[in-house]
Design goal:
This protein has 479 residues and is mostly helical. Helix content is 62%, strand content 4%. It has helices at 46-53, 63-73, 79-99, 102-106, 108-125, 133-147, 154-183, 191-196, 206-209, 213-228, 233-237, 259-280, 285-305, 308-318, 321-324, 327-330, 336-344, 348-366, 380-393, 405-422, 432-440, 446-456, 462-478, and strands spanning 35-37, 40-44, 242-244, 247-251, 403-404. α12 (259-280) packs parallel to α22 (446-456). The longest helix has 30 residues, at 154-183.
Length: 479
């Protein structure tokens, strides 16, 4: 019989700044598999960690261990392979109990209840693990075999049936969301038309749709939180999962992501390009100045809300070359507020100012007196880079061959923070007109942005004149 060990990790202290990934267990705990430190698993063989996951009559793993191991195990094996191993261990225990004493047979029901609970936590936390036929077949096989333990108990069958039904509904909902999002495709303007005329009076712009920066910032928060709600822990862990099952040392780069991560990346790029488009498409300098100052106000409201991703997207859009080169326009802009926002997002010291602001927003969220104070939306690309860097900095295996589970406690802690933030419901009222514009308004390509920029303010040096000439030739030849 295995003794129940405490598993709740002390997340903030699991990895110190001096940690190299080579764990030094306490003297009294350095033998065995897994290895414990202060009551927490810090390393173990893959087989030993799997055994720690599987319940027995007298043992059920802590939920933090279940979540952390199920999340991190995909770095070392496919979910259907893990499910098969778990199934084999469960069935072996079941057979031993069936062949044992009458007391063992009477305890079989308690064991079955624990297996169902483990499967329930797995299907609820990581439903996408069961998308492929192999995993679903393994799940149904395990379910069928454990129901044979107590065929007369309708409750067991009903519980399993409900679990599988909920799983299928969850998978269907995720698939439907992807299909709906795929249908929302912003159009690109005709490049030839851009050269013939600037923004036409009949063509909508952001100020004609909404001139209140607070409302625009609130709608950006809606879009961000809706997209975050459809990013899951396993999506984040896929950043450094093996590309091919047979090549366990080859990892994905931080650019190769799942569909949901790519979609969120695309949204960030859209914000930046939309800002640049709205500025460059305006013919008159006075109006361009007004648009720039409007977006500065939107960015400031994003900062106040705690939406750092949209804030960074707006700043990135204003720093794109076609916008940044509009010196005559910028000379008329009151830039004090913009300078302050750029200071908050300054990349120096590993974005130290931003990290301080993010920490402040997280603390505000924890002690929030109103729903508006709960919003925390980090700069997503920086968050991804942080967990990828943590993965690369600390070895996944120790010299003795054990998995460095201490590392995965820390990765899970950071992902858990993100999961907490993404579950916040947006506290602002939806404005469908503004939302639709932000999501579907036409945006310019990079070439079109430069054309519009040069038409607003002509080239000022030889390099710009050569670029402008080449652009005009290229676009006219395409027309």
């Amino acid at each position: 019989m295995r003794e129940t060990m405490p598993q709740k990790p002390i997340f903030p202290s699991m990895l110190g700044s001096s940690c190299s990934g080579h764990v030094q267990p306490d003297m009294g705990e350095r033998c065995g598999d897994p290895v414990y430190q202060d009551g927490n698993v810090i390393s173990g063989s893959l087989e030993g960690l799997i055994e720690r996951l599987v319940p027995s009559v007298d043992y059920y793993p802590d939920r933090t261990y279940i979540f952390t191991f199920l999340l991190s195990s995909r770095v070392f094996m496919n979910p259907h392979e893990l499910l098969a191993k778990v199934g084999q261990m469960c069935i072996k225990q079941k057979q031993q109990l069936e062949m044992g004493t009458d007391a063992d047979k009477s305890r079989l029901k308690a064991f079955v209840a624990k297996i169902i609970q483990l499967l329930k936590e797995w299907t609820e936390n990581f439903p996408c693990d069961f998308q492929d036929e192999k995993s679903m077949k393994e799940l149904k096989d395990i379910a069928h075999r454990i129901t044979q333990c107590d065929e007369e108990n309708a409750t067991v069958k009903k519980t399993i049936s409900q679990m599988i039904q909920n799983l299928l509904l969850n998978l269907s909902a995720r698939s439907q969301y992807q299909e709906i999002r795929d249908r929302i495709r912003p159009s690109l303007p005709d490049k030839g038309a851009i050269m013939k005329n600037k923004a036409q009076s009949s063509q909508k712009d952001i100020l004609s749709v909404c001139s209140d920066p607070c409302i625009v910032a609130q709608q950006l928060a809606h879009i961000e939180l809706e997209r975050l709600a459809n990013i899951y822990p396993e999506d984040l862990m896929m950043i450094f999962c093996p590309v091919e099952p047979l090549d366990k040392h080859k990892c994905r780069s931080d650019i190769t992501k799942t569909y949901n991560l790519e979609a969120y990346d695309n949204w960030f790029n859209r914000i930046s390009t939309l800002v640049a488009t709205e500025i460059c498409r305006v013919a008159k300098k006075k109006q361009r100045t007004r648009v720039i100052e409007f977006f500065i106000d939107v960015a400031r409201e994003c900062f106040n809300i705690g939406n750092f991703n949209s804030l960074m997207g707006i700043i990135s859009g204003m720093n794109l070359s076609p916008v940044a080169r509009l010196r005559k326009t910028w000379s008329k802009v009151k830039t004090a507020k913009f300078d302050m926002l750029e200071h908050h997002m300054d990349p120096s010291s590993n974005f130290g100012n931003y990290r301080t602001a993010l920490q402040g927003a997280a603390q505000r969220s924890q002690t929030a007196n109103s729903s508006r104070e709960k919003v925390v939306i980090p700069v997503f690309n920086l968050f991804i880079k942080d967990i990828f860097f943590l993965h690369k900095l600390h070895s996944s295996h120790l010299p003795n061959g054990h998995i460095n589970f201490k590392k995965f406690w820390e990765i899970t802690r950071q992902i858990n923070d993100f999961m907490t933030w993404k579950q916040v419901e947006c506290p602002f009222e939806k404005d469908k007109k503004v939302l639709n514009y932000l999501l579907t308004a036409p945006i310019y390509t990079e070439e079109a942005l430069f054309v519009a920029s040069f038409e607003s303010e002509g080239p000022e040096n030889h390099m710009e004149r050569d670029s402008w000439k080449a652009l005009r030739t290229t676009l006219l030849n395409r027309a």
